[in-house]
Amino acid sequence: MKQKTVFTIKTIRRVCAIVFAVFSCAILFAQTAAPARTVARMPARFPGAIRLRLPPRIYAVPGIEMNVYFDNICLAANPLNYVFDVKCEKGRHQVERWTFVPAEGDVGQFPFVIEVRDETNAIIARAESVLQVAPKKAGAGQQISVLTVGDSLTHAAVYPARLLELCKAEGNPQITLVGHVPGERNPNVRIEGYGGWTAHRFATFYKEGERQSGMVDWKTWNSSGSPFLYADSPGKPKLDFARYCREFNGGKAPDFVTFLLGCNDNFGASDETIEASIDTMFKYYDMLVDMVHQSRNDTKIGILLLVPPSGTQDGFGASYKCGQTRWQYKRNQQRVVERTMEKYGKREQDNIFLIPANVNLDCLRNYSSSQVQWNSETKEEGRRLNNGVHPAPEGYRQMGNTIFCWIKAQLAAEQ
Fold it and tell me: Among 132, 148, 149, 235, which residue's CB has the most CB atoms within a 10 Å radius?
């Protein structure tokens, strides 16, 4: 009887050991398998060596083409060396871009993911965003005012003019642009855009004399002081947006203010100096943002992500001879975009938004170019880009489309 009891206890112990081993293996397998299932449902974001970045939102409106050009969202000497894989239920994946013209039935929000693969088909980078399609009639008939602030890309006055053009169609807000008139072509195109200017200059450059609200020569305009600086009673200049609005917008702060700065602020930076250069830019950028919100805290401020340069070195050779390369400027521009997203992203509760102007710009076809001989010993001609950082009118119009879609999204959110 005693031996039988011992045998039973040994048997029980063996059975328990086997059950424990099987159970442990099951737990280990579950722990190993779980992350794979999670990754499949929610891919992890990582910029990889090519520093792939997407803005948090890509805005669109029915009837207007929206694009994401692959070269614009990463830092690669030759993006054709990689395979870009777009995952979105809307739009079309082409060689150099994702493109989409929404219909009225496409209104809504949709996940947007891009994966980048190398020649072995390994995923080397992944980024995600949200495609947000606003209703075509968002803000219909509503009166809004918009102030566009920037450097020579704003001074060209094409993307503000595009906003006016788009708002003329039925179902859109009635828009008033705030600022000075840059030329005789359209007195309703009013801006604060100055060639060569930086955030530092807008925040600190004071010059005595009354600002002119009418048309002035662009050189006179650029040499004038910041439109936002006024001398107080002791004569010390300070940013006074409320006074600016009294002079140029009937005393009311604009509903929307956009800033497009960063080109001149960081043009001459190198890999060694770019971080300090951006730090300096942000110091004064913050002053301008605060200036607006001190006057009216519900003004929606749109920070335009700095647009990429022209698509080849030809544009830089034409503009700067041997003074700058496209690759170095692109490196600077990409770092400005990255840090702008880090600093001003996820600030919607503060009425600060990112406008993804950088993704929707064809840098090969919508920068200015000219027909030239390929070399002196041939009669054969071809087109070469002839400007490094300033788009052609078609490129500026793409920028205007992006801003318009952002404004429509904000108006839709208010309804």
Answer: 148
Q: Which CATH number among 3.40.50.300, 2.60.40.10, 3.40.50.2300, 3.90.190.10 corresponds to the domain 57-132?
A: 2.60.40.10
Assess if CATH 3.40.50.1110 describes domain 136-414: yes
Residue 349 has, within 13 A of its CA and on its CB side, a CA count of 1
Question: What kind and span of H or E run contains 284?
Answer: helix 274-295
Q: What is the DSSP string of 248-262?
A: HSTT---SEEEEE--
Collapse the DSSP code of 336 into the 3-class scheme (helix H, G, I; strand E, B; otherwise coil) and give the result. helix
pTM (2 d.p.): 0.88
- Is-contact 398 60, C-beta < 8 A? no
The ranges assigned to domains in the chain are 57-132, 136-414
Which SS3 state, helix, strand or coil, does residue 358 take?
Answer: coil
The pLDDT value given to residue 185: 75
Structure confidence at residue 222 (pLDDT): 72
CA–CA separation, 277 vs 15, rounded Å? 70
3-class secondary structure per residue, 61-117: CCCCCEEEEHHHHCCCCCHHHCEEEEECCCCEECCCEEEECCCHHHCEEEEEEEEEE
* Burial (CB count within 10 angstroms: exposed 0-12, middle 13-18, buried 19+), residue 218: middle
Kindly state the tokens that stand for 1: 């009887």
Find where tokens 């040994």 sit.
Answer: 10
Contact 195, 224 (CB under 8 A): no
pLDDT along the chain (415 residues), means of 10: 44 46 41 36 82 98 98 96 98 98 98 98 98 97 97 96 97 95 82 95 86 63 85 84 94 97 98 98 98 97 98 97 97 98 97 98 97 97 97 98 98 92
N-terminal to C-terminal alpha carbon distance within the chain: 86
